[in-house]
Design brief:
363 residues; alpha+beta; 7-stranded antiparallel β-sheet; 10 strands; 44% helix
Length: 363
Amino acid sequence: MGHSAAYFDGQDSTRWPVEVTVEGRDLLIRKQAPPASDAGPSDTPGPPIRWSRGSYRQVHGTLEREHLRFERGLEALVTKDRQLLLLLGRRPLYYNQALLWTGGVTLLALVGGYVFGLPALAREVAQRMPISWEQKLGQQSLTQIAPVDQRCADPAANAALTRIADRLAAARPPLPYPVKITLAKDPQVNAFAIPGGYLIVNTGLLQRTQTPGELAGILAHEIEHVRHRHPTQGVVRALSKSALLSIAAGDFTSLLGMATTLSELRYQRGDETQADEDGMRRMAAAGIDPAGMIAAFHMLERVGIELPARARFLSSHPLTRDRIAGLEALSRTLPYAAGPAVYDGHWSVIASACEKPGDPAHK
């Protein structure tokens, strides 16, 4: 009799529903059709997969209420079916005082590691994550954060905005993946990065920026969040301890439920400083006056006073006077070949992107 389970091949994020049978101590895995949302052009069930005795190990499921998880290299097999464990000649442990004591000590150790070692662990997990996983998470998140019917489809504005982003992205150091801009019809003064190289820019931000240099400064800051994979690190920090440990072991499926929280991520202070300084250096390398970033931050301070409830950039990227002073000092040390952030005619279409008839003119 077959047992239902989920199979991951370790190459991408596809979750294959499978039927597992036990032959001696071997596991015979038969793929079923994957969910349509996960299936790729080459995703076909193929022949059965045999895991021979000794080639796999059980990593979860010793206790009676745990899911069973078996691994063979990068492959993983997960199931709720406890009968599979019994057929393999193993029995679950039952709770007793000694087990509870051991579990309590282990939990305290995990909590301590989670609190004090989380930033380093988040960086490690983000660096280990395959690029394809980050991009898939970004794609799924984009559809939830900025649905197609809520995007600004103005072709001239999108093209001009992409020119600025491409110019910044082409400057060194290189990025782990291409930058993709999505212009959202949203009055909130915001722009933010999500995993996989996706940047979401709200029309509310375009209507508040005074110059192309200010917009380039904000984009440069967000592009550095992309380069250092800060959004993915933020997602990892937001996960539960159990999900974090699963990801550290190579199972990234817990990330796929985080899409709706990405626009609310809070970066660490060190992440912000890194994005500020490296973003300013990127502006100089691209031949754009780095003072544009300072002007952008001053603009955001003013917006924070005028519209505190809508200035979402400030809530997720808090500014300090020391932070701006540090950038002012850095800008004086950066040589650059001066050039406009955008060419004549492009700025006007960006500034008025998706304005409705009767909207106030951009100022």
